[in-house]
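An example makes the point: we let one protein speak, the chain in one-letter code, the fold tokenised, and here it is:
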Amino acid sequence: QIHPSALIQDSVIMPSVRVGSNSIIRNAILDKSVVIEPGAQIGIDHERDKSRFTISAGGIVVVGKGEIVTA
């Protein structure tokens, strides 16, 4: 489920991912069953992303299976 107000750019979304309203996802891979809560951002603040996720050498943010991403 991807909420119509969510913005997703240059990303791969696996099955059973839920993306909440007003979320922004850029340059990311979201594994199965990830939940992106309303207003959450991925790929915007790389310092914050580094503390929560794996980031490839090319700058792709990888969110692991079943993770819940808060705003």
